[in-house]
């Protein structure tokens, strides 16, 4: 991290000349402006402005109708971007550059915009604080690395995609040594940017990678995830390669996930741990996990926000299909890790690599809080191959997940009606856009035979 006083000194001596002033959009991307560093330290650190459509677009930056917060009728006015100086950090993969994340404020009231991803997660973290707990989380970033660059792949029409390796490279040191020209600068640059990087590894497919970051407070974890995802794309491009965080880029390949580990702490100690319990789970943890399970359909749209997200949920691919918990079992939607130790935690394996970490973590925290407040009882763990069975299924489509989100009384109470309605509309936009497109699959299957 970087203090403002240090930044002032670095600007004065010419070490830093650019400040990236960023908000996190609905899709979990960094959006904002590049400031001349001298202008930033001379006054722009207080606030800047952006069009309010940045929290009402789709992946392609289209401006669909149906949002209550902004529209063509309302003229697409401004939001205030308020730099959070506690998030100042260097960006070592870009020369002379630092970054700061912003809160998004209403231009008139200067209150936080409630459907801003940072504001949504802040609200759930604050609720836990009032209960005496700190939310600790970690996310795993999975992605595919390709032979060609983003530009080359785009110009080819996204066809004939070739991963950087030709075989499953799960834990392979031999193959990942060939990829170190990309992964080594990713690890080192992110470490130098203040992210507690643990490791990278080959994942269970051709060209698939995983980046692991040490657990931290929920807000920090979401920031680490967002910054790392952005950096992976930029650093790969600098080395002439493309990456994708699309959960399922080929039906012949396994998908990419983003597992979320979580636990609650109290007074600096793990509140999920009880050494007298057979598995080491405290009553608090059991109620929290029961909430995660009960309300999983409600927040699935935050963990799997696009049409493609649901193509990852297939048997035998290490992606879950059922809302079930088990002890150290990678076929379950929720895996108990660190059994019997102070590191005991729950790993949610449902989120895909396309999740917005602020929204996904906020949804999980809200569900866990509900489990605690309702005093829910945790069912016994499932054993064996959890793929065998047809109960407690994860919503199978974005439409199903959007319906569950829309009808969630729990999330409406936790986040507010306006926030829920905003992200229901986001899901509807994705569905509407997909349904109007004629796909290659339809043409190839039916052009002659239909």
Automatic annotation (TrEMBL):
Keyword ATP-binding assigned: yes
Ranges of residues in domain GS beta-grasp: 14-112
Entry keyword set: ATP-binding, Ligase, Nitrogen fixation, Nucleotide-binding
PROSITE patterns: GS_BETA_GRASP, GS_CATALYTIC
Cited SMART domains: Gln-synt_C
Membership in a protein family: Belongs to the glutamine synthetase family.
Protein name: Glutamine synthetase
Organism this protein belongs to: Phaeobacter inhibens
């Amino acid at each position: 991290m970087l203090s403002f006083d240090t930044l002032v000194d670095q600007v004065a001596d010419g070490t830093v000349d650019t400040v990236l002033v960023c908000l996190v959009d609905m899709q979990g991307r960094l959006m904002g402006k590049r400031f001349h560093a001298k202008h930033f330290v001379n006054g722009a650190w207080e606030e800047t402005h952006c069009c309010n459509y940045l929290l009402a677009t789709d992946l392609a930056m289209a401006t669909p109708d149906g949002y209550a917060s902004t529209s063509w009728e309302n003229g697409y006015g401004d939001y205030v971007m308020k730099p959070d100086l506690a998030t100042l950090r260097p960006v070592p993969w870009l020369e002379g550059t630092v970054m700061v994340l912003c809160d998004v404020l209403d231009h008139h009231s200067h209150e936080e915009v409630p459907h801003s991803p940072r504001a949504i997660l802040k609200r759930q973290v604050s609720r836990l604080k009032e209960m005496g707990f700190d939310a600790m989380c970690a996310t795993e970033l999975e992605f595919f690395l390709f032979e060609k660059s983003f530009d080359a792949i785009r110009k080819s029409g996204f066809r004939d995609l070739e991963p950087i390796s030709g075989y499953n490279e799960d834990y392979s040191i031999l193959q990942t040594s060939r990829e170190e020209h990309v992964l080594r600068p990713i690890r080192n640059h992110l470490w130098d940017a203040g992210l507690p990087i643990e490791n990278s590894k080959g994942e269970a497919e051709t060209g698939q990678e995983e980046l692991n970051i040490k657990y931290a407070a929920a807000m920090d974890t979401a920031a680490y995830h967002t910054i790392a995802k952005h950096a992976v794309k930029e650093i790969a491009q600098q080395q002439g390669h493309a990456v994708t965080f699309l959960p399922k880029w080929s039906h012949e390949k396994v998908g990419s996930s983003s597992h979320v580990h979580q636990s609650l702490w109290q007074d600096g100690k793990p509140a999920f741990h009880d050494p007298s319990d057979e598995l080491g789970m405290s009553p608090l943890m059991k109620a929290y996990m029961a909430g995660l399970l009960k309300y999983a359909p409600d927040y699935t749209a935050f963990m799997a926000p696009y049409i493609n997200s649901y193509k990852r949920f297939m048997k035998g691919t290490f992606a879950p299909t059922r809302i079930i918990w088990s002890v150290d079992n990678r076929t379950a939607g929720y895996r108990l890790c660190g059994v019997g130790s102070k590191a005991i935690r729950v790993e949610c394996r449902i989120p895909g690599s396309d999740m917005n970490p602020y929204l996904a973590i906020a949804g999980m925290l809200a569900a866990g809080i509900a489990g605690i407040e309702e005093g829910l009882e945790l069912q016994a763990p499932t054993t064996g191959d959890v793929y065998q069975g047809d109960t407690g299924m994860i919503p199978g489509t974005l439409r199903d997940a959007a319906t569950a989100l829309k009808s969630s009384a729990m999330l409406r109470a936790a986040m507010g009606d306006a926030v829920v309605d905003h992200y229901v509309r986001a899901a509807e936009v994705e569905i509407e856009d997909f349904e109007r497109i004629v796909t290659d699959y339809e043409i190839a299957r039916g052009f002659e035979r239909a």
